[in-house]
Fold Ig-like domain-containing protein.
Amino acid sequence: ADKPRASLRPERTILPAGGSVAMSCSVFSSSGWKIYWFRQESVSSTAQLIRHNETGGVLFISEEGVYSCRGGRGDPVFYTETSNKVFIQQTVPIKPTVVLQSNWSQIFRGENITLRCEIQGGGGAQWTYEWRPTSRNSPSSNKYWIIRAASGRYSCRGTGNYLLTRWSDDLSLTV
């Protein structure tokens, strides 16, 4: 028969600042498996064994990264296929600010304008950006272009290296 595969299920994929997330690893085909836990610091790094020989299939983690597991049993050890990878992002206590880039105090309906997402104290992280409401013209830029301005509320947050900032306060745009 084919090798069994371990299955990894997280309690959630967003790690709250100072908190933890429960990860559950299981092998469905039979019993007697000991669990081996792995973590990658980034997608391009090599998975490092963080725990092994665990008889329980639950691990509480408190660091962001890419997690996987596998089962092993017997002597010599027979291993299952490695599980699916689970990406865990950690919330950091940083709140970006949305800034209107305009030289004018009044904006008129139909003008083209730009908003900018500013992150202070990001520790040198390489951020990509999410915007609310979403827009096709700014999927990951710190700039949000509004063509033919209309009144609305806009906010942003940063993601990078499995870190996730809080959402900024809304910028209310009145035209």
In short: The longest strand covers residues 65-73.
